[in-house]
From TrEMBL:
<dbReference type="InterPro" id="IPR017441">
    <property type="entry name" value="Protein_kinase_ATP_BS"/>
</dbReference>
<dbReference type="InterPro" id="IPR001245">
    <property type="entry name" value="Ser-Thr/Tyr_kinase_cat_dom"/>
</dbReference>
<dbReference type="GO" id="GO:0043235">
    <property type="term" value="C:receptor complex"/>
</dbReference>
<keyword id="KW-0067">ATP-binding</keyword>
<keyword id="KW-0829">Tyrosine-protein kinase</keyword>
<keyword id="KW-0808">Transferase</keyword>
<feature type="compositionally biased region" description="Low complexity">
    <location>
        <begin position="371"/>
        <end position="393"/>
    </location>
</feature>
<dbReference type="GO" id="GO:0005886">
    <property type="term" value="C:plasma membrane"/>
</dbReference>
<dbReference type="GO" id="GO:0007169">
    <property type="term" value="P:cell surface receptor protein tyrosine kinase signaling pathway"/>
</dbReference>
<keyword id="KW-0732">Signal</keyword>
<dbReference type="Pfam" id="PF07714">
    <property type="entry name" value="PK_Tyr_Ser-Thr"/>
</dbReference>
<dbReference type="GO" id="GO:0005030">
    <property type="term" value="F:neurotrophin receptor activity"/>
</dbReference>
<dbReference type="InterPro" id="IPR011009">
    <property type="entry name" value="Kinase-like_dom_sf"/>
</dbReference>
<dbReference type="GO" id="GO:1990090">
    <property type="term" value="P:cellular response to nerve growth factor stimulus"/>
</dbReference>
<feature type="region of interest" description="Disordered">
    <location>
        <begin position="371"/>
        <end position="469"/>
    </location>
</feature>
<protein>
    <recommendedName>
        <fullName>Protein kinase domain-containing protein</fullName>
    </recommendedName>
</protein>
<dbReference type="GO" id="GO:0004714">
    <property type="term" value="F:transmembrane receptor protein tyrosine kinase activity"/>
</dbReference>
Length: 469
């Protein structure tokens, strides 16, 4: 009887763990079509399941040790406005936090409210999220303003800072070339702006990694955009209802998963680590530079899972800078240990942003110098004091009219009394060439350049009668 009971226990354990024989240490490799959960070949020891057992330092509660208690807010100080989104167990409203009960508005906020139909487990998850979010203090992580505690039948509320432009995926799509709808308060996205967005997301994920916090659902839909294109990482848990096509239930009845952003080990073994977040960040980079396209668009979720585990990756978007392309590919290494760490990702993007800014400044300086050089007028040719006139000057003027004779030209001036000038008008008689006037001027002036008195010419004597012989 003892042996029979032992055999029954072993059979029940194997039924509860159908893949235990496939991934046991030192076990033979499974043949294709056996209990292997994916078509990915596991030769060379790649992606072995025992490497991805749960690690307590990767839990969300690892950051709660340094958490500060969330400020408690009176429910009367909150005024709910319009609804922003809805999830399975809660809604998010735009609201106003009042300075005092019935007083003026102190801050515009986003309020996450649990539904009345939410289970006790959902409420525990809600409170756990409050504890986790209260531990984070970073400019690229959504700030928790406070919490409204349960009051009798009233469910607790979470109060976050309000990001006026919504999620990053929508901002990118609104600024795409095919769906051009400029958003009020945001300039069109340039290459410099896209690089700034990527760097901000990397900064936020670097902070979370330093807190040993695994996000598990990093995507542009879970990043919010504020004034001045400030990007902050968040996860209200509402995106599964808004972006239903981005989530897929791998197992019937299980929680839907964002398979298009998941790493091979997350798809195969359901393990989420800091390294799997790095993989997801590579997909976020692809989203940013494709202006909000869905990863692997045109393929079903089942096809996407097969593509990922077979190592068929996304191609880099057109116009993606070389530095960003290198980071993207380094995030998609098959082996998690070969991927970049978030501090390396952030440092590379900071360097790329600095180099892009320096190149833009140089190009601006060169363009300004060229414009200034083009605005300087050319120096006209110097005139000559030579009294001779070149033969080419006898040609017609640009207007087609012969130029009048110059006063400095004695040859032309000598015959000017009998010739016609410009327009066919006769020249006045007794015209003296300028050269002769200059010679006579010395005779008409004294030593102090005063005009000398002139003697009038004698009048001719007129005779009334002829002289005698």
């Amino acid at each position: 009887m003892l042996l029979l009971a032992l055999a029954a226990a072993v059979a029940l354990w194997r039924r509860a763990h159908p893949h235990s024989r496939c991934f046991a240490r030192g076990a033979a490799k499974p043949r294709h079509g056996s209990c292997s959960p994916s078509p990915l070949s596991l030769n060379k020891g790649l992606l072995e399941a025992e490497r991805y057992t749960p690690n307590p330092q990767y839990s969300a509660l690892a950051a709660v040790g340094d958490a500060l208690p969330a400020p408690a807010l009176p429910r009367a100080r909150l005024r709910l406005l319009n609804e922003l989104g809805e999830g399975c167990f809660g809604k998010v409203f735009k609201g106003e936090l009042l300075a005092t009960e019935g007083g003026g508005v102190m801050e515009t906020v986003a309020v996450k409210v649990l539904k009345d139909a939410a289970s006790a487990e959902a409420e525990q998850d809600f409170l756990r999220e409050v504890e986790t979010m209260s531990a984070f203090r970073h400019p690229n992580i959504l700030r928790l303003v406070g919490v409204v505690e349960r009051d009798g039948e009233c469910r607790p509320w979470m109060v976050f800072e309000y990001m006026p432009h919504g999620d990053l995926a929508e901002v990118l799509r609104n600024n795409s070339r095919t769906l051009w709808r400029p958003m009020p308060g945001l300039a069109p996205l340039t290459q410099e702006a896209l690089l700034s967005v990527a760097r901000q997301v990397a900064a936020g994920m670097r902070y979370l990694a330093e807190q040993r916090f695994v996000h598990r659902d990093l995507a542009c839909r879970n990043c919010l955009v504020g004034a001045g294109l400030v990007v902050k990482i968040a996860d209200f848990g509402m995106s599964r209802d808004v972006y239903t096509c981005d989530y897929y239930k791998v197992v019937l009845g299980a929680r839907p998963l964002p398979v298009r952003w998941m790493s091979p080990e997350s798809i195969m073994y359901g393990r989420f680590t800091l390294e799997s977040d790095v993989w997801s960040f590579g997909v976020v980079l692809w989203e940013i530079y494709s202006l909000g396209r869905q990863p692997y668009y045109g393929h079903s979720n089942e096809e996407v899972m097969k593509l990922i585990v077979q190592g068929i990756m996304l191609s880099c978007p057109e116009g993606c800078p070389a530095a960003v392309r290198e980071v993207m590919r380094a995030c998609w290494k098959t082996e998690p240990r070969d991927r970049l760490r978030f501090h390396e990702v952030h440092e590379r993007l900071v360097k790329a942003e600095e180099e892009a800014a320096a190149a833009a400044a140089t190009a601006t300086a060169v363009a300004a110098a060229e414009a200034e050089a083009a605005a300087v007028p050319t120096t006209p040719p110097s005139t000559s004091d030579d009294t001779t006139t070149p033969a080419s000057e006898n040609a017609l003027s640009p207007t087609g009219v012969e130029s009048p004779p110059s006063l400095d030209d004695p040859c032309r001036a000598a015959g000017a009394s009998t010739s016609s000038g410009a327009g066919g008008l006769p020249q006045p008689p007794g015209r003296v060439p300028l050269a002769q006037l200059r010679a006579r001027a010395a005779e008409l002036l004294d030593g102090e350049n005063y005009l000398l008195p002139q003697q009038p010419p004698p009048q001719p004597r007129e005779y009334l009668q002829p002289l005698p012989d």
